[in-house]
Amino acid sequence: MTDRLRPVLRPMTLGDLDAVLKIELQCYPHPWTKGIFGDCIRVGYDCWVLEEKGIGIIGYGVLSVAAGESHVLNLAVDPSLRGQGLGRQLLEHLLQRALAGGAEMVLLEVRPSNIGARALYEKMGFNEIGRRPGYYPDGERREDALLYAMDLETAP
């Protein structure tokens, strides 16, 4: 592996789904299915992969944009490569895509227990605006989601 990663962003294709799912299964206790990712591509959501030469897909993001609002639906980086700014790179790209799509606001949900993701979102200018009780499956129980938002018109 290289000392310094130089990944490129490109649109996700149906051919990427096995690699995307491999990361998804490592990141989430209740992962999206291959079918969900395929549906996101087919309906025209903004789906992106982060790809490193010699390694392959190392992260991905899924964004919906409609009626002046955008929603980060999924964002993940290979757990073995975290802490190198890859999540930030993906999120910055999704925010640019939201702006290009005419969004004025970006929303996302995150588990309260996902400290790393929360730190990234807050560092990027997202603010916690609410809570969705019982949003995430968590074994026999359900975990709340924290709802975060960013006003793109006033974002730093």
Give the topology.
Layout: E1 8-11, H1 17-27, H2 34-42, E2 46-52, E3 56-66, E4 69-77, H3 86-100, E5 105-110, H4 115-123, E6 127-138, E7 141-151
Parallel strand pairs: 4-5
Antiparallel strand pairs: 1-2, 2-3, 3-4, 5-7, 6-7
- Give the overall pLDDT as a whole number: 93
Rg, Å, rounded:
15 Å
**Low-pLDDT sequence parts:** none
Return the CATH topology. Answer: Aminopeptidase
**What letter string, H or E per element, gives the SSE order?**
EHHEEEHEHEE
Q: Give the total of beta strands.
A: 7
* Largest beta sheet: strand ordering: 1-2-3-4-5-7-6
Distance linking N and C termini: 34 Å
> What structural class do the secondary elements suggest?
alpha+beta
Largest sheet, strands/sense/barrel = 7 strands, mixed
What is the CATH superfamily classification? Answer: Gcn5-related N-acetyltransferase (GNAT)
* CATH first level: Alpha Beta
Q: Can you tell me the number of structural domains?
A: 1
The share of residues in extended strands comes to: 35-45%
CATH architecture: 3-Layer(aba) Sandwich
Helix proportion: 25-40%
Q: How many helices?
A: 4
